[in-house]
Design a protein that fits this description.
The chain is mainly beta. The protein is built from no helices and 12 strands. The mean pLDDT is about 85.
Length: about 150
């Protein structure tokens, strides 16, 4: 994350920058590595509702813009083909990887009526209160936390 609106990847053992990505229009708030070792992607979240997906193999970035305020967190879905982003704009956005375009696309925007600070996906097989059975592989269940100081 960076106040200069850039994202850099460092090799700490050899003390040099391996990648540098620019293009955010606001402060970069958080960065997340894609959890799959086959995908060398770094996803950055910034002020102004911006998300950028940075491909470390090609050094190309792709912008995603659905939020209207700072994106503060994201969590990958259980199948690793998508993620859910949370922002201070009172919504969560579900993103899925489109193999045709080779980019993530918004599949759903859900109003949650509170400014969010965190989100986490519930793993497959976990039994959650209010659900009749454990989370299935094709389900996306998330827990959010925000300015109401409660988890839902």
């Amino acid at each position: 994350a960076s106040a200069d609106r850039s994202v850099r990847v460092w090799n700490f053992q050899k003390s040099f920058c391996t990648h540098s990505f620019a293009g955010h229009s606001g402060i970069v708030y958080r960065v997340f590595w894609h959890p799959s070792p086959q995908k060398l992607e770094l996803i950055s979240c910034a002020e102004g509702g911006e998300i950028q997906v940075h491909d470390l193999r090609s050094s190309v970035s792709h912008k995603l813009k659905e939020h209207t305020s700072t994106v503060v967190a994201l969590s990958f879905q259980n199948d690793l083909l998508g993620f859910v982003s949370a922002g201070r704009d009172n919504v969560i956005v579900l993103w899925r990887y489109d193999h045709k375009t080779q980019h993530y696309k918004n599949t759903r925007t859900i109003p949650v009526f509170e400014s969010l600070e965190g989100i986490v996906s519930v793993g497959v097989g976990v039994k959650c209160p209010g659900l009749s059975q454990p989370v299935q592989p094709n389900q996306t269940i998330v827990i959010i936390g925000g300015d109401r100081c409660t988890f839902r």
